[in-house]
Amino acid sequence: MNKIKILTIFGTRPEAIKMAPLVKELENREEFESKVCVTAQHREMLDQVLELFDIVPDYDLNIMKDKQSLTGITNRVLEGLEEVFEKEKPHMILVHGDTTTTFGGALAAFYQKIKVGHVEAGLRTFDKYFPFPEEMNRKLTGAIADLHFAPTPGSKENLLREGVCENDIIVTGNTVIDAMCHTVKEDYKFETEELNNIDYENKKVIMITAHRRENWGEGIENICYALNKVIEENEDVELVYLVHLNPVVKDVVYKHLDKKEKVHLLPPLDTRETHNLMNKCFMVMTDSGGLQEEAPHLGKPVLVLRDVTERPEAIEAGTVKLVGTNKEVIIEEANKILNNKEEYEHMKKAVNPYGDGKASKRIADAIINYFGLKDIEIKEFK
């Protein structure tokens, strides 16, 4: 084997953000022939990341459809990748995290007896329906994977408890920290002009995202109610809510928060805009998994709008609080951070447990070792 052929597969914006630095690392290594396949499980938001990191996919399955079902996504991923695998015959595929693309990609590779590397492996809530379907996507992918790139020691322990061989697990840190090393600039000027007009120095700006399937309906309603109360009770607070394009979310948010003073409702931003908004804001409220990792890197307190999380490390470190979607709890915890300087400083200064910017290098080294091209000493993330 002169070169290791790697096919990296992803389909959503969060996956793309976290896989982009790894794709660039593989492209820069002489040991690899790197190919990229996107499923476009999400279309527009995915394309923004590809453009930002200057990645041109070798294959684009373009599977996204209106009102797509989980079954439909899975079927289209399996069928599309079968043709790609037959043509490329990669030595290993890389998938990321917990999406339906991830599980479908791993399953398709298993059917072809192709090795699977799972980036961001080992996260668990231990409740198969929360988050849904992500918890089982991640766990089933782990059952298929040959190499497990665990972002933290805690993720490694989860895999060991499930019987994964320790030699097949490498603690890498999270690749999202690698990505943020390229996107965040202190003198950044937003392309979204509305964001340039916000007074980040004198206002306590809260950045919000909330869109997860388990929060549809009552959860989003409760979040919007709580946000209204927070701005009523705090004159110096402004909200920037990045509203997911799904009408199930968008319609509810606009019903409660549209045309409210001190509220900015914006569509999802591209990655660079999002990271730099996070860097300038006072705190973050989110049900996103990725933001739970990104915000601590920037020293921003996070209230997680979910009942469970597969990312407990930041809670243990003190930079993240799990508040769910109970209206009163959200209001109480937000006010605590907004009005208690000691509480805010404690969360702001907590150590980020998710990475040091070297995850992609560790992953590339581990793959080289796995295929026997070299024997590289890897200092795992701790």
UniProtKB/TrEMBL annotation:
NCBIfam families documented for this protein: wecB
Keyword Isomerase: yes
Family statement: Belongs to the UDP-N-acetylglucosamine 2-epimerase family.
E.C. no: 5.1.3.14
Record-given protein name: UDP-N-acetylglucosamine 2-epimerase (non-hydrolyzing)
Domain of life per record: Bacteria
Pfam families xrefs: Epimerase_2 (PF02350)
UniProt source species: Clostridium amylolyticum
Top EC class of this enzyme: isomerase
CDD domains: GTB_UDP-GlcNAc_2-Epimerase
Entry keyword set: Isomerase
